[in-house]
C-alpha cells in the first residue's frame, strides 16, 4: 500500500501546479455547465407543466361546454314541441278573457280576469324562453328609454305583498332589442320569487360617472344566494329553485352581453341580493 501511495504521489507531483489548477478549473467549469443545464431543464419542465395544466383546463372547459350545449340543444328541441301548443293555449285564453271583459258581469269578474291575464302573460313568457336559443338570437336594435322599458316590465307583476320602490328617471337612450324585456322580466321575477312572504324590491337606473353607461340595480330582501353557487348561476342548468330549469340567468347574461353590456350578482351585507346590469348609452349609429 505504501508503494502505491508513493507512486500516486510521484505521479501527481510530476505535474506542475499550473496544470493542476487548469484541470481543477476545467472540472469546476463542467460542474457549472451541468448546474446551468440542470436549471434550464428544470425551468423548461416547469413551463411545460404550466402549459400542460393550461391545456388541461381548456380541455375541461371545452368538454363542459360541449355537454352544456348538448343539454341545451335537447332541452330546446323538446321545448319546441310544446311552444306551439302553449301559444295556442294563450290565444284561446285571451279570446275567452275578451269575452268576459265585454260581458255584463265584467266588473264583478274583474279580479278573476286580472288573475287570468297575469297567467296568460306567464304562458307567453314561458313560450318566449323556448322560442329561440340565445346563441341564435338575431337582434334588431332600436333606441329606447330603458326606464320606460323597466316600468313596462314591472307593471306585469302583481305583488301586493312586496313593497316596490323605483328610481327610474329619464336617461339617455340605449340600443335595445325586444329580448331585453325578457331579460329584465326574468331578473325581476327572480327577486319576487325570493320573497314569498313579502319584502322590499328596489329598482334603480342611473348614468355612470363617465356618462357612457347606464347602471341598473335590482335589489331585494329575499333569501339570498349560497356563496358556493353564486359564481356559477350564469351557467346553464344552475339554479337555486326546486322546480327551476337553470336557464333563466344564462339567457339573461347572453342577451345582455349581446347588447354589449354586463351583468353581475352579489349578496347584500344585510339581507337579500343585488343584481347589476350595465348597458352602453346609444351611439349615433346603432350596431
UniProtKB/TrEMBL annotation:
E.C. no: 2.7.13.3
SMART domains on file: HATPase_c (SM00387)
Protein name in the entry: histidine kinase
GO-annotated biological processes: phosphorelay signal transduction system
Cited InterPro entries: HATPase_C_sf, HATPase_dom, His_kinase_dom, Sig_transdc_His_kin-like_C
Coiled coil: 17-65
Lineage: Bacteria, Pseudomonadati, Thermodesulfobacteriota, Candidatus Desulfofervidia, Candidatus Desulfofervidales
A Gene Ontology molecular function term of the record: protein histidine kinase activity
SUPFAM superfamilies per the UniProt record, alphabetical: ATPase domain of HSP90 chaperone/DNA topoisomerase II/histidine kinase
Keyword annotations of the record: ATP-binding, Coiled coil, Kinase, Nucleotide-binding, Phosphoprotein, Transferase, Two-component regulatory system
Amino acid at each position: 500500500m505504501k508503494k502505491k501511495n508513493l507512486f500516486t504521489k510521484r505521479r501527481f507531483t510530476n505535474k506542475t501546479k499550473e496544470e493542476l489548477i487548469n484541470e481543477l478549473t476545467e472540472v469546476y467549469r463542467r460542474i457549472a455547465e451541468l448546474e446551468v443545464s440542470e436549471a434550464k431543464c428544470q425551468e423548461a419542465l416547469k413551463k411545460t407543466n404550466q402549459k400542460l395544466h393550461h391545456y388541461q383546463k381548456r380541455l375541461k372547459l371545452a368538454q363542459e361546454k360541449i355537454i352544456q350545449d348538448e343539454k341545451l340543444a335537447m332541452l330546446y328541441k323538446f321545448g319546441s314541441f310544446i311552444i306551439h301548443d302553449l301559444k295556442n293555449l294563450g290565444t284561446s285564453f285571451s279570446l275567452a278573457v275578451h269575452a268576459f271583459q265585454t260581458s255584463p258581469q265584467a266588473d264583478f269578474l274583474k279580479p278573476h280576469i286580472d288573475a287570468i291575464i297575469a297567467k296568460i302573460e306567464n304562458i307567453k313568457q314561458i313560450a318566449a324562453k323556448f322560442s329561440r336559443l340565445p346563441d341564435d338570437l338575431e337582434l334588431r336594435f332600436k333606441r329606447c328609454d330603458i326606464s320606460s322599458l323597466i316600468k313596462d316590465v314591472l307593471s306585469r307583476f302583481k305583488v301586493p305583498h312586496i313593497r316596490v320602490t323605483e328610481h327610474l328617471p329619464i336617461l339617455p337612450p340605449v340600443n335595445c332589442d325586444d329580448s331585453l324585456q325578457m331579460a329584465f322580466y326574468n331578473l325581476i321575477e327572480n327577486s319576487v320569487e325570493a320573497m314569498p312572504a313579502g319584502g322590499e324590491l328596489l329598482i334603480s337606473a342611473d348614468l355612470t360617472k363617465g356618462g357612457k353607461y347606464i347602471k341598473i340595480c335590482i335589489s331585494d330582501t329575499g333569501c339570498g344566494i349560497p356563496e358556493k353557487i353564486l359564481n356559477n348561476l350564469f351557467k346553464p342548468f344552475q339554479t337555486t329553485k326546486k322546480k327551476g330549469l337553470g336557464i333563466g340567468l344564462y339567457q339573461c347574461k347572453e342577451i345582455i352581453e349581446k347588447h354589449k353590456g354586463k351583468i353581475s350578482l352579489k349578496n347584500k351585507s344585510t339581507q337579500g341580493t343585488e343584481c347589476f346590469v350595465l348597458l352602453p348609452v346609444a351611439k349615433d349609429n346603432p350596431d
